[in-house]
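Just wondering, does anyone understand what follows?

——
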Amino acid sequence: MSVPASHTEEHPLNVRGPVRPPTPRRRPRALGALAALALAAGTALVAVQPAAAAPAARVDNPYVGATTYVNPDWSALAAAEPGGDAVADEPTFVWLDQIAAIEGDAEKRGLREHLDTALDQGANLVQLVVYDLPGRDCAALASNGELGPTEIDRYESDYIDPIADILDDPAYANLRIVTLIEPDSLPNIVTNAGGTAGSTDACATMKANGNYEKGVGYALHTLGAIPNVYNYVDAAHHGWLGWDSNLVPAAQEFKKAATTSGATVNDVAGFIVNTANYSATTEPYLKVTDTVNGQTVRQSKWLDWNQYADEQTFAQGLRTALVAQGFDSGIGMLIDTSRNGWGGSARPTAPSTATTIDGFVDGSRTDRRIHAGNWCNQSGAGLGERPAASPAAGIDAYVWAKPPGESDGSSKAIDNDEGKGFDRMCDPTYTGNGRNGNSMSGALADSPVAGHWFSAQFRQLLANAYPPVGSSGGGGDEDTQAPSVPTGLKVTGTTSASVSLSWSASTDDKAVTGYDVYRDGTKVTTTSAASYTDSGLKASTAYAYTVRAKDAAGNVSAASAAVTGTTAASGGGGGTGACAATWKANTWSGGFQADVTLKNTGDKPLTAWKATFTVPSGASVTNAWSATVSVSGTTATATHVDYNTDIPAGGSVSFGYQGTGTYAAPTAVTVNGQTCTLS
């Protein structure tokens, strides 16, 4: 999948609630031949309809409690590889990447047959990729499609409408149907349609004619009218949209498409990141807040000032930006983890001890690509996290959207009747372009056309799987060691409706992936951070908390020592503890850069937020992002911008600024008059 040119700018963001069901508005279908004949003859026609299954109730997260369909076509190919039976039962998406895929052929079953097979399996969730826009994937060639840039009418009538007609069949009313809407399309409009080193004339054409937005909007509107369909829009990955200059513009572009061709934001259940890509789900030994000799690692060649180092933090940050654009606060994110495990002997087991920024980052990151812009059949990649529901805050599921073993593109030109071209990024001898910093492509040799089975790649993915698949998968030793027990659990603040907690990070022989937080013995959340604010509580009530750490293999530590937090009396919505503020800074001779997170720990939103804080005498601000920052004497004021106006209860915003003079962490911070707890 394509990515943008390098960037040298910045952004952040993160929360969750119920998804509103879409409003049905399917067009009436044309009369069938039998009905037309009866009407023409002036005779009555009584249609005998098969008994329909009771419609499945609309749910917040379709993956919770679901039995997900396993595609037998992919499963058979995986099981035929040595050790492949260890993962052959994992659910993968079905790619409808051309009109002919709707009906299927002798080698691959069509959409209706997939749905019938899902019912036979006893599954209640099916995952589909909707991928055939006009002028498809304008910044690459490997996955070019069959429709020309202006064929929007054919996309609607010959592709989306037939899919909708099948999905709307009452026989499938009890299936939850997840659709992944058009990988790469809208992100290409954001970054590759003019003005960057990675831009293409084809993307400029698609931006000018608007057919990506029209097509995505039509798909959302038409499929979203079916009550049991859950639309997830493709949102690229952190190495594409993770810069400040891209993140909010991307959210704005997604909003534009979601309100085009009759669609509304209610037609969107969520978004998916890392589709068919290789970015690590989490980087256990690398954070963008790390420093080496007082310098931020964000200036390293690998990060290039990106605000994110992995997909989970990117997904959570993008989610907040999307909600700020008007998407429902209950939208969930999916992460494609099919090929981003990066296991094997080359995987680091601890942060690097290198004393240079680039050395530290390159020695700490588990993603071992040459450049984060490399996307085609990457050498050294491994299977990632197995599909799982609700793995982290705001994440609906880890999924395998790209079936492992299906090629990204051919390593040399191969004639085909699928409209797929030869992209040099799939050639292992290619020295790159502006989108990957003119780096080597890192692609495997001897690869077939996109979507075709690539045995050598599948075997590599199996061998380098992380978590390993065990002896049957050839991926290395099974991880059976649980992380250490979290220590230092403490209450850091309370309001009448919330208790804020923090604890010391656990360690593990592989990597800690998250923490389960328990209130009075019941798990209330899983978080990747060593802190959590439990909200929606009763006033003047004591709650007991414990925390358990877990790793990627599912090993869970014993519970921490318990701590009790007592909420304040009702009516005390303000005062100490109504907000929390975190300052992190890098300094140099005569200057500094500060990154700030403000969290609303109260029970009411902080609307049109304004923060005041102390600064040393003589300090001045020369640049700011995600806020307007000014200094008067020893008091600084930061005011919201148009895309982060409010801080919801339990939510947070981030901003940053650069300045000259002496830096010192604030000694006092208020937000809308509420005194913040400093950490």
About this structure: The longest helix spans residues 152-167. Residues 1-51, 471-475, 571-577 have pLDDT under 50 and may be disordered. DSSP finds 13 helices and 26 strands in the chain. Residues 101 and 557 are 46 Å apart (CA to CA).
